[in-house]
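Researcher: Can you fold this with magnesium ion in place?
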Amino acid sequence: MQRIFLKGIKGGTGATSMVANLSCVLKRSGSDVIAIDLDSKSDLGLHFGLPWKYSQGWSNVDNFEEALQHFHIDSDGIVFLPFGDKTTKTADIFNTVNNCNKLDYKNNTWLIFDCPAHIDITLYPLTKNDIVVEIVNCDAICHSLIYKKLQKLKQADNQWKHFFLVNRYNSASTLEFDLFSLWQSTLPLVAPFFINSDEVIKESTAYRNVALNCAPYSVANDDFETLAGWLVSKSAL
Ligand SMILES: Nc1ncnc2c1ncn2[C@@H]1O[C@H](COP(=O)(O)OP(=O)(O)O)[C@@H](O)[C@H]1O
Ligand SMILES: [Mg+2]
């Protein structure tokens, strides 16, 4: 089993869309995938076909045994757990992460967490086999946040594998090109590829689905396949 923690370095960078699209590509390549929504916006399930008004999830129950009733399976066979609509403490989120270790896995299962942007990833119960991917956009705010995060990581003396990944890259923007080139030449933790900005991501969400099912030959879908292959190379699976 390989745990992946996907988190935006700030809100709205595209973390949830990435969890959903990556899950689908990994599932289609033959692995089992379990996706867990840790963000109180509880919008991951929308990418997997849940109705717009669906509001239940693990936060609505008192213990993990009851939360098992809230797992769903989408039409591709991805198992997922929505957040729900109750207020939680940060400790509840970390308990849910730990409780997921008790699930019954096959060896080649990917356990992918959609983490909220506002909780520092260095506080999570992480181990040395975990992979953390912080999603960034190519802009000046993320530039500043990456450097601050790198300082924090030094202090945390982290054991897990930590990366930054550029999402919603606009190839027509000179600023984005310059920032990406700068990060590539100076920051080894920035992944050596990006996920392009692609309308297909928004359109497939409007169908409560993912790019692979709505536009299999899209740029974005190629990018998610690159991401999946790169994660396989970093994983212990
Ligand atoms: N690669 C992309 N290209 C175009 N739009 C994207 C891309 N990734 C995400 N988006 C859009 O950005 C918005 C925020 O995405 P979301 O996944 O909800 O971010 P987060 O979970 O980080 O808040 C959504 O409208 C989504 O469709
Ligand atoms: Mg989100």
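Model: Folded with magnesium ion in place. The first strand starts at residue 2 and ends at 8.
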